[in-house]
């Protein structure tokens, strides 16, 4: 059965006014006439964008990835309702046995997408291989990594991204073997220096975890891990909830890092009302748009990717095609997925339909239309 969507379409080559045909879960044809991106949505025409890709998802819909069981099903469904069509389920720093249990629950969902759900592409292992001096909101279970342990965990569910602190003993030597195993190593939760960051990049590290947060900052005489990212990084995550990073710092990162892409770092509080939720072993409070520990430390976010797009366009002033790239295409390229993150013939039919105000109207994941009715 073929489905045709019409409107202003954000393609890899610009915005066109035209149509997109979906067949067998993929985009069959894209056709139309080029228009100025600033005119997208004029006259009430729908805007079609590539589905959002989020590589840093701890939770949503009241559930946390570390719960195991069916938590990831709820999480993947909730984020799909906000336009995320593919994601990486992200763990917390915890005893290795707890991480193993979570990955065992994630494995089957990574192999088969559930109905009304985002595609779970694999796992982002954020800890326990991080600095005890830069935990942020991570629990105090940081340990050094070994290749054997990482590969054993990878047997339970595919680890696509691994966050490490490169200055920890033995970590620099692990980056090359992990890269060769198909795992993208990201620098994060690190007390390391500028030189530590450059050494990790030279060893094969692929990017940075939530740039600016939980890493040594930039000073003109001690440029820190942030300085290494801005000077030499090709890829990095960034949380554009306007709480984790000031808009001015986001602009700096956009100018410096070609493959900068946006993530939510979302917790169980995403898509939920204010109140108390779980983040790993911690209780966190959602209030005034943020998620915090009892001491006020930011603890992940309540951000969804549709709001991330609106922030990029309506607050930071990015043109729509660039904003779409930062919430979709750049992450697909980073993960080596040529058939996601773009509206082009042959790609998976992961499509977000928005109005001129960038409010979500329809979502398709691999051709399946998702129920985006507001949650009760």
- Note the main sheet: 7 strands, mixed
**What's the CATH C level of the largest domain?**
Alpha Beta
User: What CATH architecture label of the largest domain applies?
Assistant: Alpha-Beta Barrel
H/E topology pattern: EEEEEEEHEHEHEHEHEHEHEEEEEHHEEE
Number of strands: 21
| CATH topological fold name of the largest domain | TIM Barrel
Pfam family, one: Amidohydro_1
Domain Amidohydrolase-related: 47-362
EC number: 3.5.1.25
Keywords: Carbohydrate metabolism, Hydrolase, Metal-binding
Salient structural properties:
single chain; alpha/beta; TIM Barrel; 2 domains; 27% helix; Amidohydro-rel; hydrolase; GlcNAc_6-P_deAcase
Give structural notes.
The chain is of the alpha/beta class and 376 residues long. 27% of the residues lie in helices and 29% in strands. The protein contains 9 helices and 21 strands. The chain has a 7-stranded mixed sheet with strand order 3-2-1-4-19-20-21, covered by helices on one side. Strands 5-8-9-10-11-12 form a 6-stranded parallel sheet. It is globular and about 55 Å long. The two termini are 32 Å apart. The mean pLDDT is 96.
């Amino acid at each position: 059965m073929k489905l045709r969507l019409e409107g202003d379409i954000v393609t890899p080559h610009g915005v066109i006014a035209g149509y997109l045909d979906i067949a067998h879960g993929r985009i069959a044809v894209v056709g139309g006439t080029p228009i100025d991106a600033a005119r997208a949505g004029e006259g009430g025409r729908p805007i079609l964008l590539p589905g959002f890709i989020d590589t840093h998802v701890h939770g949503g819909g009241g559930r946390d990835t570390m719960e195991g069981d069916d938590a990831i099903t709820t999480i993947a469904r909730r984020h799909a309702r906000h336009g995320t069509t593919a994601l990486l389920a992200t763990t917390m720093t915890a005893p290795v046995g707890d991480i193993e249990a979570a990955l065992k629950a994630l494995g089957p969902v990574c192999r088969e997408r559930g109905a009304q759900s985002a595609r779970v592409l694999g796992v982002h292992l954020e800890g326990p291989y991080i600095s005890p001096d830069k935990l942020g909101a991570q629990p105090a279970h940081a340990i050094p990594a070994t290749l054997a342990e990482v590969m054993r965990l990878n047997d339970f569910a595919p680890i696509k991204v691994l966050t490490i602190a490169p200055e920890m003993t033995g970590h620099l030597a692990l980056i090359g073997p992990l890269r060769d195993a198909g795992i993208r190593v990201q620098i994060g939760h690190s007390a390391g220096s500028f030189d530590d960051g450059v050494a990790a990049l030279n060893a094969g590290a692929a990017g940075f975890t939530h740039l600016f947060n939980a890493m040594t900052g930039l000073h003109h005489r001690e440029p820190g891990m942030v300085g290494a990212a801005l000077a030499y990084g090709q890829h990095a995550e960034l949380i554009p909830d306007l709480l984790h990073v000031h808009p001015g710092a986001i602009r700096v990162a956009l100018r410096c890092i070609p493959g900068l892409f946006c993530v939510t770092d979302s917790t169980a509080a995403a898509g939920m009302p204010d109140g108390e939720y779980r983040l790993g072993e911690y209780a966190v409070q959602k209030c005034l748009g943020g998620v915090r520990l009892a001491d006020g430390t930011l603890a992940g976010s309540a951000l969804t990717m549709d709001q991330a797009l609106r922030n990029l366009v309506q607050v930071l002033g990015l043109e729509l095609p660039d904003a779409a790239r930062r919430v979709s295409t750049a992450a697909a390229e980073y993960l080596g997925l040529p058939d996601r993150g773009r509206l082009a013939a042959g790609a998976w039919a992961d499509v977000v339909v928005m109005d001129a105000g960038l409010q979500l109207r329809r979502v398709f994941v691999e051709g399946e239309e998702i129920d985006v009715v507001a949650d009760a």
